[in-house]
Amino acid sequence: MKIIRHSTIVFIFAWGLTCAARAQVYSVNAVGYINSTFRAGDQLFGNQLANEDNNTLNVLFAPAAVPNGTTISLWNSQSGSYLPPSVFDLGSGWSINYSLEPGVGALMHAPSAFNDTFVGEVVGYDVIAEAAIPPTPPGDGTFLLACRVPFTSASFEQTIGRAPREGDSVTRLDNLTGTYFSTSFHGGDWDNGTPALRIMEAAFFNLGPASVPEPAVWVLGLAGSLSLLAMRRFGKADACKRPAPTRL
């Protein structure tokens, strides 16, 4: 599967000798940028480039681009709930400067659409072999993840690092309708379509041989309520009105 190469995402692959005196040292890099459009409302997303400084919210997002009151929440797989939301303020930045390493997923609520450019190095990809390096598979549980490599259509295996097993499921968010939809792996096939994540899309991966509860509606609703409170702080509560997530 190829990495996308067009105006939305551009990679510069460079390799070669650093200099004659240091001919034994090679530089093998895959660096570039991703221009991403965030819609108004909720969306699950993940950073897919390692910034040379760090991968905190204050570095990843250009302050002039982010609407006041935008919130980002990270998922805690151990507790099965979201961490407190980080709220963006144009004057002070993000209230919690979370780190979003490549592959980590998050829930964003934006009062209006905006664009942001992510710049950095691709991790988990062998430029010479032109192949993804599988990540270490997580254990059993529910995880909010994105593929580390910005493929146009990332498979379960490329995101998780292993083949699907009986009972695994993937829950995605439809940005247009604001509803969640799931597909489960049973009898060697997916019951609601093979999951394939778009560039910078994150999804819930419910993994394990036993039945592991997926993120409950009340948990997702709580994140939305917290976003609503944050929006009211900026006098933009009307932008938060949206359908509640359907049953996962």
Structural description of this entry:
This protein has 248 residues and is mainly beta. The chain has one domain. 10% of the residues lie in helices and 35% in strands. It has helices at residues 57-60, 156-160, 217-233; strands at 9-17, 26-38, 41-46, 71-76, 81-82, 86-89, 93-94, 105-110, 114-121, 125-126, 131-132, 141-146, 169-174, 179-186, 189-190, 202-207. The strands form four sheets. Strands 3, 4, 5, 6, 7 and 8 form a six-stranded antiparallel β-sheet that branches. The longest helix has 17 residues, at 217-233. The protein is globular and about 55 Å long. The model is unreliable at 1-9, 12-28, 210-214 and 236-248 (pLDDT under 50).
Order of H and E elements: EEEHEEEEEEEEEHEEEEH
Helix count from the secondary structure assignment: 3
What fraction, in percent, of the residue positions are helical? 10-25%
Q: Give the termini distance in whole angstroms.
A: 29 Å
Low-pLDDT parts are 1-9, 12-28, 210-214, 236-248
What Rg do the Cα atoms give? 19 Å
Number of strands: 16
What about the largest sheet?
Answer: 6 strands, antiparallel
Map the helices and strands.
Blueprint: E1 9-17, E2 26-38, E3 41-46, H1 57-60, E4 71-76, E5 81-82, E6 86-89, E7 93-94, E8 105-110, E9 114-121, E10 125-126, E11 131-132, E12 141-146, H2 156-160, E13 169-174, E14 179-186, E15 189-190, E16 202-207, H3 217-233
Antiparallel strand pairs: 1-2, 2-9, 3-8, 4-5, 4-6, 4-8, 6-7, 10-11, 12-16, 13-14, 13-16, 14-15
